[in-house]
Amino acid sequence: MDNAHFLWQTGWYCDGQWRDSKQQYEVNNPASGQLLAKVAVCGTQETQAAIDAAKRAFGSWRNKTAKERAAILRRWYELMMEHQDALAELMVLEQGKPLNEAKGEVAYGASFLEWFAEQAKRANGETIPSPTVDNRLWVIKQPVGVVAAITPWNFPMAMLTRKVGPALAAGCTAVVKASSDTPLCANALAVLAEQAGLPAGVLNLVSGDTAAISDTLMASPDVRKLSFTGSTRVGKLLMSKAADTVKKLSLELGGNAPFIVFDDADLDAAVAGAMASKFRNTGQTCVCVNRFFVQEGIYDAFVEKLAAAASRLTVADGMTEGAEQGPLINSVGLEKVEQHVSDALAKGAHLVCGGKRHALGGTFYQPTVLSDANEQMLLAAEETFGPVAACFRFTSESEVIKRANDTPFGLAAYFYTQDLNRVFRVSEALESGMVGVNTGMISNEMAPFGGVKESGLGREGSSMGLDEFLETKYVNLGQV
Length: 480
Ligand code: NAD
Fold this sequence. Notes:
This protein has 480 residues and is an alpha/beta fold. It is built from 15 helices and 22 strands. It is 39% helix and 22% strand. The chain has a 7-stranded mixed β-sheet, sandwiched between helices. Strands 9-8-7-10-11-21 form a 6-stranded mixed β-sheet, with helices on both faces. The active site is at residue 252. Belongs to the aldehyde dehydrogenase family.
């Protein structure tokens, strides 16, 4: 630890000040259950104060040049990387992922600040040929205003920077509501933002009473945009609440990712991709594989190799040297995994490895592989969000595309093949916002991240990520 206790903030952040509250809530280490900190509970008043601060700060922040905003974002990126180890250790304690993964998330999260510092300077408009001789037509891009960002616990730093980076780059100001499981990670980033020179009120953080906070954000006419990452259930609820004030929306919601292994795949590469995509973050990622579809000719060999690799994973507290899989976030997550496994076994699945709570106790669960999965099982219909690889058998390409698409979700999809014609056919046929072909890792700041169908609206990262926080204004000039 780089002696960075200053990163631990338990207050709430408004108008450039850390504030206390009358009530606190407990944040616990998911690996040990131990109390980590008591954090300020925010409700209606605090949220309104945060919105007001963001509104006051908007005028001067939007009037800075893009280059000035970019310099602050760039410095924030550098500070995140300078404190990568300390931020990662805080994340392990609060969220549970292994230290190496946490370091990776800090770098991934920081990359959005670096990227959008550059993109800030490219919020270009355009001029349009006029249909009349005397008129001139042009289009400018302007920040949407105060943005509300609601983030989940599974990537507590990267989901914040993936929203706040482009929002601030565009000239918006923000009120962030972090998950009550991981407020310390969000607070640590605000500490560094302040050090980077972010003016008071540009970024404000509240957490605690989720219902009061979100109702205040959603009812406020001053909040012009909601950027949400979380479950489809909550996303739908917020979408309906956004209607009253017609807020712009970006929604990054749940998935049900298929991972298709064709007979012609490189078997070892497919197993390596499967491990990365399924067991990272203990299976708690929105782009995690939820359904492995394996062609009949390669099915037995794939299941055997996957189970061998899963059984070799080192399950431990994320701070333990060599840890590869940490605990689940809480007992609700653990119970869902247990329910999905027992339902699958009752409906004809076979346990190839794992299938039980881990001997470490708490919310640790064994890396699990199930064969003979079918569409009647709960795990075929909804995210398990845990370390369970369910393997379905298929015969033909047309059959598997139909089955892969037979879900209301469409975030990520993966497939392994060595047939180039199939690469084009299948990637075009899959109903998802992102497709990994012969790779299990698809997230980076330069590519558009997002889903179709009930997996969401809008894109994060890439040049499209900035557009989500910009309004388009068209100007028609007649004679002067
Ligand atoms: P969640 O929907 O329970 O919570 C997400 C956020 O919404 C948290 O801050 C939470 O406090 C808040 N929230 C909960 N109930 C709310 C309500 N009624 N009104 C307003 N806010 C509310 O999700 P989670 O368990 O924190 O995260 C896991 C989910 O997020 C999974 O479904 C996962 O697929 C999804 N996810 C999606 C992406 C993506 O980019 N598409 C990325 C990460 C996670």
